[in-house]
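Lecture notes, continued. The same structure-token format from the folding unit now serves as the input rather than the output. Read the line below as a description of shape only.
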């Protein structure tokens, strides 16, 4: 593999992971507040469709991204209302919504299938793009990729270095104690579920306007929502670690493209689907590594202990549990 191949692979990973990063961060924020949004897969598809159709009709990328974000926020708001105020099962509502949103996206988007529409143009950053190795990998993309990188830093800072982030985490860990201190868990859960859905919707918009431009069936984003949900667990409910998992998944996808050229005798469908079971396999290994007997053995290997420690973490104590506010 040449240096150029190496740069192209890593550049492709950074670009290809952008929508998954946004979706994983959005779901991390939602789950940190104590709610589970299982509608991600359908929400991403519906947001991708809405973003493409609106941008095509208005010839405005800004309008398209706004439509995608609002679509994701609307789906999340439905889950929040049904879960927080009507006290229905978050899992059941989310699962039904993902199926409904998926079918709705295919139905409403059918007239716009395979139509050429607006696409986010590249926006190399002057001077930075000329830095050897780093420049082509990080600074020769479009604004959606830069936005996903910015979202990683902002979400980590907000959750762990601000008072509002502390309140968010307290609601997800112990809503009763938060309520006793004057915090309204239901209000915060509603706000952050919608904010998380907004980021998921932006991820869908990035798919149809940048990463995989256009709309069709299949669109190319199918299954991504489930991967984003898994990445939240993979990252130990930490947005930075979840984003790292998104880049790993994107690496598997990019390498699949190269493997098609290196091994032409193997059907292309194998490499197209391989990233999904491989990611699940990695998640199983990570879960296996959290067992006490494994941790004892890992203590003797510092490098392996650091690797497992990076992706370790526990779910918010009140995740998925309804809080009955007096």
């Amino acid at each position: 593999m040449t240096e150029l191949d190496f740069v192209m692979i890593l550049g492709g990973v950074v670009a290809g992971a952008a929508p998954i990063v946004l979706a994983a961060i959005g779901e991390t924020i939602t789950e940190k507040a104590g709610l589970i949004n299982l509608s991600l897969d359908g929400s991403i598809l519906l947001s991708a469709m809405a973003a493409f159709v609106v941008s095509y009709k208005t010839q405005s990328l800004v309008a398209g991204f706004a439509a995608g974000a609002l679509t994701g926020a609307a789906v999340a708001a439905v889950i929040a209302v049904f879960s927080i105020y009507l006290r229905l099962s978050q899992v059941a509502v989310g699962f039904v919504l993902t199926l409904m949103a998926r079918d709705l996206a295919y139905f409403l988007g059918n007239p716009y299938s395979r139509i050429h529409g607006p696409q986010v143009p590249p926006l190399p950053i002057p001077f930075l793009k000329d830095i050897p190795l780093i420049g082509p990998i990080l600074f020769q993309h479009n604004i959606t990729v830069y936005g996903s990188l910015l979202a990683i830093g902002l979400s980590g800072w907000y959750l762990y270095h601000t008072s509002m982030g502390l309140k968010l985490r307290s609601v997800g860990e112990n809503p009763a104690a938060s309520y006793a201190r004057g915090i309204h868990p239901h209000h915060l859960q509603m706000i952050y579920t919608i904010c998380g859905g907004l980021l998921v919707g932006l991820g869908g918009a990035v798919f149809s306007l940048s990463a995989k431009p256009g709309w069709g069936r299949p669109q190319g984003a199918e299954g991504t929502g489930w991967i984003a949900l898994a990445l939240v667990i993979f990252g130990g409910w930490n947005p930075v670690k979840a984003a790292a998992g998104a880049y790993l998944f994107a690496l598997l996808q990019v390498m699949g493209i190269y493997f098609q050229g290196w091994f032409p005798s193997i059907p292309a469908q194998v490499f197209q689907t391989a990233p999904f079971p491989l990611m699940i396999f990695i998640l199983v290994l990570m879960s296996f590594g959290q067992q006490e007997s494994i941790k004892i053995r890992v203590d003797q290997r510092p490098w392996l202990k650091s690797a497992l420690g990076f992706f370790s973490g526990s779910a918010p104590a009140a995740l998925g549990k309804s809080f009955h506010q007096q």
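Point for the exam: Residues 185-211 form the longest helix (27 residues).
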